[in-house]
């Protein structure tokens, strides 16, 4: 289930950001920086009417990660992002949540195109992107790291 961020979500979010294994393909963040990221992601909804959701396991209500359909400051293309907390890796949550975010972007918002920025070493996110029908477009850099830009246009098919 996708839902808004809540204050009580922050401890687990901060632990994810500080964990060097979990954040290997992100920008590792201490608790102070994690708070800024958490609040910024929640605040995107006010600025763009799009942003990040908390991902909850429907049966238990347990927080398992987060997923976003959002805009970066300089971009006019909606970006998808997903993170599953380490205890829930390999259980399909990223696939399901990212598919819901993709559907929101392309079918509800009617965005013409979406993108995901993924490091080449992030094999699990590359698998999710492939399942979503995103294809490699180009290389770019974010936060000093090289990443691939994977895109899909509305009407594009899933592989």
Structure overview:
By secondary structure, the chain is of the alpha+beta class. The protein has four helices and seven strands; from the N terminus they run βααβββαβαββ. It has helices spanning about 10-20, 30-50, 95-110, 125-130, and strands at about 1-5, 50-55, 65-70, 80-85, 115-120, 135-140, 145-155. The chain has a seven-stranded mixed sheet with strand order 1-2-3-4-5-7-6. The radius of gyration is 15 Å and the shape is globular. The chain starts with a strand and ends in a 6-residue tail after the last strand.
Label the overall shape: globular
Rounded Rg? 15 Å
Percentage of β-strand residues: 25-35%
Order of strands side by side in the largest beta sheet? Answer: 1-2-3-4-5-7-6
Question: How far is it from the N-terminal to the C-terminal residue, by CA?
Answer: 24 Å
Q: Please count the helical segments.
A: 4
The succession of helices and strands, N to C, reads: EHHEEEHEHEE
Low-confidence stretches: none
How would you state the average pLDDT, rounded? 93
What is the number of E strands?
7
**Largest beta-sheet details:** 7 strands, mixed
- Percent of residues in helices comes to 25-40%
Set down the secondary structure blueprint:
Layout (H helix, E strand, L loop, with lengths): L1 E2 L6 H9 L12 H18 L2 E6 L6 E8 L7 E7 L8 H16 L4 E6 L4 H9 L3 E8 L2 E9 L6
Parallel strand pairs: 4-5
Antiparallel strand pairs: 1-2, 2-3, 3-4, 5-7, 6-7
In short:
The protein is an alpha+beta fold and 159 residues long. The chain has helices at 10-18, 31-48, 93-108, 123-131, and strands spanning 2-3, 51-56, 63-70, 78-84, 113-118, 135-142, 145-153. Helix 1 (10-18) packs across helix 2.
């Amino acid at each position: 289930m996708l839902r808004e961020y809540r204050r009580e979500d922050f401890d687990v979010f901060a632990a994810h950001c500080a964990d060097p294994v979990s954040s290997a393909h992100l920008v590792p963040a201490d608790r102070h920086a994690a708070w800024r990221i958490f609040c910024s992601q929640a605040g995107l909804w006010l600025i763009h009417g799009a942003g990040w959701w908390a991902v909850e396991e429907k049966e238990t209500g347990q927080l398992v990660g987060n997923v976003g359909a959002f805009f970066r400051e300089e971009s006019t293309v909606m970006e998808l992002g997903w993170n599953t907390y380490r205890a829930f890796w390999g259980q399909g949550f990223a696939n399901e949540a990212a598919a819901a975010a993709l559907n929101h972007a392309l079918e509800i918002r009617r965005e013409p195109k979406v993108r995901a920025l993924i490091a080449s070493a992030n094999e699990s996110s590359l698998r999710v992107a492939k399942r979503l029908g995103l294809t490699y477009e180009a290389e770019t850099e974010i936060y000093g790291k090289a990443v691939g830009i994977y895109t899909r246009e509305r009407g594009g098919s899933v592989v």
